[in-house]
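Kindly review both lines to help learners:
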Amino acid sequence: MPKNDTGPSEQDAMFQIFREIFDESTRCIEPIVIPNDLKDVIEKYERQHIMDALEHYEYNQTKASKCLGIKRTTLIAKMKKFDIVH
């Protein structure tokens, strides 16, 4: 691709962005914390999502299950799994 007279080429701009992202002097001192177990992360999110729906619908399981897109019996099973009582 020929260089544009008005500025750097698209490739030059991409390389500049790449250099800025991977420049050692701009890296974080603390490493990013990544959870060890994806299953735990998913279950934590799922439990919170269920809790939010239940609280929004004042623990009406039928309305909460419709909102979540699952059957009421599935919601009840997940409530037991996550020890959610009301």
Q: What stands out?
A: The radius of gyration is 24 Å. The first helix runs from residue 10 to 21. The domain at 10-81 is CATH 1.10.10.60 (Arc Repressor Mutant, subunit A). The chain has a mean pLDDT of 82.
